[in-house]
Design goal:
With 213 residues, this protein is mainly alpha-helical. It has eleven helices and no strands. The protein is 46% helix and 0% strand. It is elongated and about 85 Å long.
Amino acid sequence: MADKPLMPKATAVWLVDNTSLTFEQIADFCGLHPLEVKGIADEDVAKGIKGQDPMAAGQLTREQIEAAEKDPKLRLKMAPPKYKIPAVKTKKAPRYTPVSKRQDKPDAVYWILRNHPEFTDPDIIKLIGTTKATIQKIRERSHWNVQNIKAVDPVTLGLCTQLELDLAVSRVAQRRERQMQQAIKRGETLQPLEDTVPAAADEPPADSDNENE
């Protein structure tokens, strides 16, 4: 929260015209020099500026002004906001991958599917910045370049760091553990991982279509 009015001179004009506050009090609140406030009172400064009511703007209360009018030594402070404005959450931009490395993504996806079948599509997308369509085609072995796809870990390909991969594995494992604990509490059991995630073949089959990825 700002500690001074957004329109200091307009606020000072209103306070000079509508209150008996001292120049020093107005100057201190508005962030101006006392002589500048005196110039406003003498109409030598801020000519033509329409006064802005700090009470209407929620910057001061009537009680604050009345108390300061009775005590010239009292300094005014910005009133706390009536409503708290929630912070705007910025959406994280998708991971950028250099053009030279984009052709390596299918290899990384295939490696993750083989070595970490517990990863969901969003987990893979977050880690290496690929698309859901690419993951699905590699799972179904219908990717246009399926003949040449090899399982290569994304760290070696430079699509993520070892730390990022380790954190992703840990995060997924913790999520799986929570799901198991919740299932136990409900008297259920989770299906084995191999029954919930389509297994990837050791090598992609040779058939392919001509669509581009």
